[in-house]
Amino acid sequence: MSTALGEKLRRLRKEKGYSLDRLAELSESSKSYIWELENKNPPRPSAEKLAKIAHQLDTTIEYLLDEGESLSTEDAADAKFYRQYRQMDDATKAKIRKMVKLWGDDT
Amino acid sequence: MSSSFSPERWAYEITHVLNAVLGAEHFPINVTAVAQEYSAHKFPNDPIARIVGDNLPGFDGALYKAPEGKKGWAIFYNNGIRSTGRINFTLGHEFGHYLLHRLVYPDGIRCGEQDFVQWDSTYGQIEHQANVFAANLLMPLDDFRRQIAPSSKIDLDLISHCSDRYRVSLIAATLRWLAYTERRAVLVVSRDGYILWARSSTPALKTGAYYRTSAGLIAIPVASLAAQRSTGESRATKDHGAGVWFPEPLTEMTVLSEQYDFAISLLLLSNDPPPFEERLRGVGGFPSS
User: To pair with A2 at 20 to 30 A between CA atoms, which of B39, B72, B232, B262?
Assistant: First the structure.
């Protein structure tokens, strides 16, 4: 499955207009390694390789690995089971809370 | 006891009601109407009280418990995605969670965006069950088999006909067909030159035509349609000799999906597979190598 890391890498790479081959060459990594970072879920990505990739994409390893704000208790109450640990952006979360609230306000 | 019905059984129960009320020609299924009316009738004290779509990036759908003072459940879903087929499947999936899992997960269930593609991965039993329910509800097997007989050859037009008829994605319709066909066929979904996941029909699996993506990265053949760079949506069919995809000739039908940024390839093999020894000698080697 793709992860937050994978999605960020892919988006940044596309914004740069780099192919997998090109980014692999620039970051002294292999094409297949970057593909796996983007599309699979390698358990412990190499910090050294990731730092080189981040550098080529004009970003930081902290940004790439940041999973977003941690799960709040409010979220946990919303839904106990997660199909996937995928962070929704705050705007989406806020919208859903509003949808629930509107429902509660209806008479 | 209905709470212990299997996903297939629930879907069958509802199909039965729809056949009785609307007649056999009731496709595509309006999941919003069916979920609300069926749940109100079957579980009047605990129905699906509302189904609301909004533009919700990063989100597919969720089953929510009613807030204090309200009864029942709600399905919220993202209507900001372009694929009506996927929305339909998401609604079926959440309806499945309601029927199958709401008593076990009394606080609701939320689903992420990529899951639909991950039909068969290790997401866990309840996700699988909700998908099985959605597939059976939206594409009842008896009706599907009337569209494409188990022994029939297939092409993209036929699959498209089914995805239109049931208002599901091309992948959902193809997976449904692969589950019962007597033909040898392999579905390969790839991105940037490597296979994301693949699924074989039973006759293909039993004769060695499969890809094991869990065993490591598998590159798609350079000569394949799936490897062609293209912008926008495109679909094409090509006959390949032995050694391109598998050590035997086959027909590749590929749809490049700009929307999801991947290639969907359906590989159709002869129903007379080469003998095992010849497959061993095949130029392309074994698929998993």
Answer: B232
Count A/B contacts: CB-CB distance under 8 Å: 99
Ranges assigned E (strand) in chain B: 48-54, 61-65, 73-78, 108-111, 184-191, 194-200, 234-240, 250-257, 262-269
Name the residue facing B67 among A39, A81, A103 (closest C-beta).
A103
Residue A107 pLDDT class (50, 70, 90 cuts): low
Looking at the DSSP assignment, which residues form a beta bridge with residue B82?
none
> Please, are residues B130 and B159 in contact by the beta-carbon 8 Å criterion?
no
Q: Which residue has the tokens 């991947």?
A: B262
Give the pLDDT confidence of A9-43 residue by residue, as tens digits: 999 999 999 999 999 999 999 999 999 999 887 77
Instruction: Say if A71 is an interface residue toward chain B (CB within 8 Å).
Output: no
| Cβ-based contacts of A77 with chain B (< 8 Å) | 107
Cβ–Cβ below 8 Å for A83 and B121: no
Please report residues of A whose CB lies closer than 8 A to that of B57: 88-89, 91-92
Residue numbers of A between 83 and 102 with CB closer than 8 Å to B: 83-89, 91-92, 95-96, 99-101
Q: In this predicted model, which residue has the larger pLDDT, A97 or B188?
A: B188
B208-238 b/e (C-beta count within 10 Å ≥ 16 → b) = bbbbebeeeebebbeebbbbeeeeeeeeeee
pTM for this entry: 0.81
Residue of B nearest to A95 (CA): B56
Q: Where are the alpha helices (DSSP H) in A17-60?
A: 20-26, 31-39, 47-56
Distance CA B139, CA B141 (A): 6
Residues B162/B148, Cβ–Cβ less than 8 Å: yes
Test mutation, A81, A97, A98, chain B, max B CBs within 10 A: A81
Q: Nearest Cα to A38, choosing from B229, B171, B217, B116?
A: B217
* CA B95 – CA B108 distance, rounded (Å): 12
The CA angle B98-A104-B63, to the nearest 5 degrees, is: 20
